[in-house]
Amino acid sequence: MAMSTGDSSGGPMSEINVTPLVDVMLVLLIIFMITAPLMSHRITVDLPTANPKVSDSEPVTPMDLAVKPDGTMYLDDVEVTEAELKSKFAVAAQQSPQPELQIRADKTTEYKIVKKVLADAKGQGMVHVGFITTGKE
């Protein structure tokens, strides 16, 4: 509490010291003056537009790929070979919107088999790939 020294009354001062408030406000003003120009984009880029023929009412069914531990693959519950799988990936990659590839691999399946499937999907142009797992056991 501040005490008055110039008065003869000797009681407490009833005025608020605004110097710390002004100091804080000046610091904030300087910070905003420095950061405000950084918020605008100086480099202009032509952004792509959304595909107008895609609507939310058209559901895209995902591609379900099951991989067994011995390497056999089932696309939508139909057994496929590696060559057939590549051709189906190429067809699906050309669709708009592109369906998601959902991979269900057995937990004992070697990673090199799954890696080969991922490489084939990427090589054919698939960009939406997901893995299906179960909860904790």
What secondary-structure arrangement, pairings included, does this model have?
Layout: H1 19-35, E1 63-67, E2 73-75, E3 78-80, H2 82-93, E4 101-105, H3 111-124, E5 129-131
Parallel strand pairs: 1-4, 4-5
Antiparallel strand pairs: 1-2, 2-3
Descriptive account of the structure:
With 137 residues, the chain is an alpha/beta fold. The protein has a domain at 63-131: Nucleotidyltransferase, domain 5 (2-Layer Sandwich), CATH 3.30.420. 31% of the residues lie in helices and 14% in strands. The chain has helices spanning 19-35, 82-93, 111-124, and strands at 63-67, 73-75, 78-80, 101-105, 129-131. The longest helix has 17 residues, at 19-35. The mean pLDDT is 84.
- What is the end-to-end distance? 64 Å
Output the helix-strand order: HEEEHEHE
**Main sheet record:** 5 strands, mixed
Give me the side-by-side strand order of the main sheet. Answer: 3-2-1-4-5
Structural class: alpha/beta
What name does the CATH topology of the domain at 63-131 carry? Nucleotidyltransferase, domain 5
> CATH top level of the domain at 63-131?
Alpha Beta
Strand-residue fraction?
Answer: 5-15%
* CATH architectural type of the domain at 63-131: 2-Layer Sandwich
Number of helices: 3
Question: Portion of residues in helices?
Answer: 25-40%
Work out the radius of gyration.
33 Å
What does the overall shape look like?
Answer: elongated
